[in-house]
Amino acid sequence: MLSYANTASYMTQNYDIKPLLPVLESGGLILFPTDTIWGLGCDATSAAAVESVYELKKRDRSKPFVLLVSDIEMLKNYVVHLHPRLETLLQYHKRALTIIYDQAKNLPANCIGGDGSVAIRIPQDDFCRDLISAFGKPVVATSANISDEPFPSFFGEISSEVISGVDAVADYRRWDKTKREPSVIAKLDDKEELVVLR
């Protein structure tokens, strides 16, 4: 079971992450603002929770989700190798950047690619980092839409089907109508050069 003692400091911010934590712990689904667009989230280490996100999104199982971790130390628990060049980049990069790593570890099969790869981002956002840090594990963060439908650029564009399909909705940024875009996705190629895929 989680201990929520370390969440007290987050209550002093302009958001409250505490209601979302037991939902994540129980394998439920949350709707939350990431450092980019609104996302559907769950415990990325729970195969059953990840399957629930696939079902809600009606998404092809061959298309794994992006995961969020709170920091580099958490990231190292879920990738076999973190290239020093990427580690340096992550320490100084200030924009939303999702990296595809060749080999995942400690994650269920339905959370990684068929080739063993995994897409992970360290969010540039206090709300997300605080939520994930308090939870203690990576969180799935996929756009809050049904597959093949447009992604919502703010909360008001999320469909009622998605909202009714989750167990908890974050209050933070719910009234913010700033239009946002998904993150850049990149990976290191065979020559150890960073290649932007999206």
Task: Give structural notes.
With 198 residues, the chain is an alpha/beta fold. It has a single domain (5-196), classed as Alpha-Beta Complex (DHBP synthase), CATH 3.90.870. It contains 6 helices and 10 strands. The strands form 2 sheets. Strands 6-3-5-4-9-10 form a 6-stranded mixed beta sheet, with no helix packed on it. A hairpin with a 4-residue loop joins strand 1 and strand 2.
Structural class: alpha/beta
Order of helices and strands: HEEHEHHEEHEEHEEE
Rg calculated over all Cα atoms: 16 Å
Provide the low-confidence segments as ranges. 1-12
How does the overall form come out from the CA principal axes?
A: globular
Assigned CATH class: Alpha Beta
CATH architecture: Alpha-Beta Complex
Largest sheet, if any?
Answer: 6 strands, mixed
CATH fold-type name? DHBP synthase
Number of strands: 10
Supply the number of helical segments: 6
In spatial order, strands of the major sheet run 6-3-5-4-9-10
* Helical content band: 10-25%
State the domain count.
Answer: 1
Work out the strand percent. 15-25%
CATH superfamily: DHBP synthase
- Name the average pLDDT: 90
Oligomeric category: single chain
CA distance, first residue to last residue? 38 Å
Index terms:
four-stranded mixed sheet, alpha/beta, globular, 6 helices, DHBP synthase
Topology of helices and strands:
Elements: H1 21-25, E1 30-33, E2 38-41, H2 47-57, E3 66-68, H3 72-76, H4 84-92, E4 97-101, E5 118-121, H5 126-135, E6 139-140, E7 142-143, H6 160-164, E8 168-169, E9 184-188, E10 194-196
Parallel strand pairs: 1-8, 3-5, 4-9
Antiparallel strand pairs: 1-2, 2-7, 3-6, 4-5, 9-10
